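To assess whether ligand presence alters the predicted conformation, the chain was also submitted together with (2S,3S)-3-hydroxy-2-methylbutanoyl-COA. Input:
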Amino acid sequence: MSSANYELHGSTAVITLDNPPVNGLGFDLRCGIVAGIDQAAADPAVKAVVLIGSDRAFSGGADIREFGSPKSFAEPNLHSVINIIEACRKPVIAAIGGVCMGGGTELALGCHFRVAVANASIALPEVKLGLLPGAGGTQRMPRVIGVEAALNMIVSGNPVASEKLKGTALFDEFIDGDLLQGALAFSGKVVAEKRPLKRVRDIKIDYPNQEAFFQFSRNMVKGVAGPFPAPMKCIDAVQAALTKPFDQGMKVERTLFLQLMGTPESRALRHAFFGERTASKIPDVPADTPTRKIARVGVIGAGTMGGGITMNFLNAGIPVTMLEMKQEALDKGIATIRKNYENSMKKGKLTQEKLDQRMGMLKGTMSYDDFKDADLIIEAVFEEIGVKEAVFKKLDEVAKPGAILASNTSTLDVNKIANFTKRPQDVVGMHFFSPANVMKLLEVVRGAATAKDVMATVMQVAKKIRKTAVVSGVCDGFIGNRMIEHYGRVAGFLLEEGATPAQVDKAMEKWGMAMGPFRMGDLAGNDIGWAIRKRRYVEKPSIRYAKFADRLCEQGRYGQKTGKGWYLYQAGNRKAIPDPEVDQMLEDYRKELGITPRKISDAEIVARCIYALVNEGARILEDGIASRASDIDMIYLTGYGFPLHRGGPMLYADEVGLYNVARSMKEFAASSGDSFWEPAPLIVKRVAEGKSLT
Ligand code: T1G
């Protein structure tokens, strides 16, 4: 049970916020604060109150775990808590250390005084959840740090170091040393000097020619806000602080906050916020599972993937030994890494010192013996089971006991790979997405024998190298690629029925995908999908594919790497140019099949492509390959260019309404005769129960 601890220090009552991990202002904590204020107010021995949090956090804001629950708005809600503090006749001092965010900042703004340590982090990040500060932040912050600084903080949602706000009315004093002792000393001064209680709401606010300033702000923000409504509403709320009396400004803020709370974009952002944090939790692996120390990493392969993987660890300050079979390939791989860092330095994103430090942690080798001290070894060699077998048998010989052996395979069976060793419990899949040093997604593939502490260790390492790690079971394509295969397959049938590659891509990109299926194929290489289809034709002949993509590959049209694929590419230019030759090939192909092309709407294109993801995603949940729908959404948001404002394929299905999605799937099944379109049993069950997927 979270609460606020109350303790007397002389004549000062200290209320300590105690709701780990970051003092989210949940219902119990709000009750605890009010109880403390009331107790202090009623005690004649108490002359002042100090509100303080932990070293880590004064408060991370409203308790987002209560969002959407009655507790979130239950009295005393945050407004009431702040009003009670502001109305208190004894001085209430906020002592700020660690993070002070959102509602936590608004709580501090309701206090009469605020003191802070220099490296506290102050933010009003609600815009990142598709909201705006909903407990007075848009009305009080401009009154203490000025309109421009406040607008910047609220529209960006980015934290500002407390020392950067020194000299503003936000802070009355900065504390060197122990925050509590400093706050108590300050409190003593306030009482001794009988300082009048300051209420931020009483501070007069003005901004010359505010109309023009806010118009300028709107013009600037409109260009970057994209599909998200919150940034523009933030501007409206802050402007109300200038144009209306405080209480009316608060009403404007409240109205806008509630409007945003109900938007699909905010639901998507909150879903993604939670999804990122939930993904790191593995249902049957306790949070306190001891992890293995990862001080040294080995990477096998210095190509695009191996080099990118290596950079992740160097960036996190973890030394890497990178192995290649040929000196030339090794030298090329190291040179590429150096070049990447030099490019970052040119852009001002890296200092020479950091570059030297990182390169200094990289050791190249052509001998497996150099892996003898490695705690984690990741192979990124050719995607062929025989090659993997040789590598893992060698690793089994040289790696120290307890070393984690990881495969970057994107399609092969991790259980098979694990069984090439005598230590399958130490083997795991770490599927990075290209470019590995850029893409946030990491699929952590759990083998049947993979030990729990190996899983816990890899999830911890993933956080250290700033990846969004999602656990996948072992199946063909794991989660992301198993779904994208049907997305591409369905797109192929759209071409058969009358659409062109450019029309499908445009429809999907207009809907929000970073790249349509055909541009994506040209980027990744159409030969990759071709190889998978050839395997599928043998392994799973029941799955139907349009044959046009094979024709394209038979002509060597692999995409950007061959100068043409679905589109044409000029040398050195990635711009996809529609190719009349492909359109003609398609026309001929349809004639051969006796298909009369029909006009296909963008809405149908989007529905068929996205619902294909949803249906296969539901099957992945049924198979236990993914443990939660939000994990699937995180994979699509961080690895496949799925639009953040739609929250992922599974959330999107819930936003459309699972009942409607299932009906569309049945229509597709009837019109195509493709059994794939029968709604997955999980979808049927959830619709029958009136439940959602997420
Ligand atoms: N409430 C409850 N739990 C929270 C939380 C919060 N506000 N913020 C984080 N957590 C949990 C998180 O789920 C994780 O839990 C743990 O803390 C560590 O988080 C009215 C309505 C605070 C900078 O948007 O930006 O106030 O997985 O891994 O990297 O205007 O979390 O360990 O069980 O991110 O050290 C506004 C969001 C809310 C802050 C810490 N506040 N949080 O970062 O750790 S809306 C936010 C963050 C609001 C008012 C409105 C970060 C952090 P677990 P973490 P971190």
